[in-house]
Give the backbone structure.
Amino acid sequence: MILQKVICTLCYMSATPLVDFDTALLKKSKATPEQCLQYRTQITQLQDDINSLEEEVQAQDQNVLAISDMTLQYLDVELCAESGAGESQRGNFSDQIYTLDHELRMLSTLTGIQIQDHTTSVVRKEQETTVVLKTLLGQSHSLSFHVELEVEEELVETSGGVRCTVTRLQVSVDKRVATQTDLQAFITWVEQEQAVLSFFRLFSEYSEWWSLRHNTFLHFKDHYSDVVRLPMGPYGDEMEFSKVQDPGACFIITWLVTVSSDPWTAIPNITLKVKAKNQMRQLDEKGTLQTCGEVFQDMVRVLGLEQAIHAVIRTTTF
């Protein structure tokens, strides 16, 4: 606010002759000519300071814009490399900046990935090289993630372009899945290879299956509250159900989300097993209890997962 008032005053003075200003100042404040000269000197010095500050701010803006352009070119190269697009198909990514918000929303809808916060800071800047530290905080479906990557951006004088290299990558995921051995193996590989896009691709698949399992188990727990239990909690991988009265057998659906390599893929593994009392097993002459798992898999293929679970619960508990 003070700076704005000073600038307004300076603008007014720039349109008013200094002689008239001195005369007005003498009339209003009864200042001496020496004091007017002193005030004029201070104002001139203040104007020089303001000009210096404006130049510094403009220089900082130019640096930020330069970093943004280099980063956009890097993303353009990476995305085109992933899609197999040639040099002629690449185009200028900067020309598409005005559609970035729409594309990000579409990406969030398709993948479930939402960036909730991000920061960019310059670690080191030299004549032709800038090292930038970027952090991304967000979630995929209902699982959170934190990505920190260090990018070295080097200007290429011969072509006028930019050569970008990820020099360091660190990834952490939601504590509810951070201890999963196969997922940790994947994250270790991602950090070693600096494979940022591979992380987001697989984590999107993994979190989608994980969230689907959570929502499915909660649905059946609410719908069949008397017979369905979640022994490992709402985020666990097991759901069990049995008759309320005389539970001779307990049926357990296990839903694992595993990560396989070569290529890295998130795979759901859903099985049904039965825990029965000895008396019930002795009466099972046809071995029906042993084949429940295979029958359930056939029902999933024919009816779909949700309808298959509905059918098994109704058949075994009512």
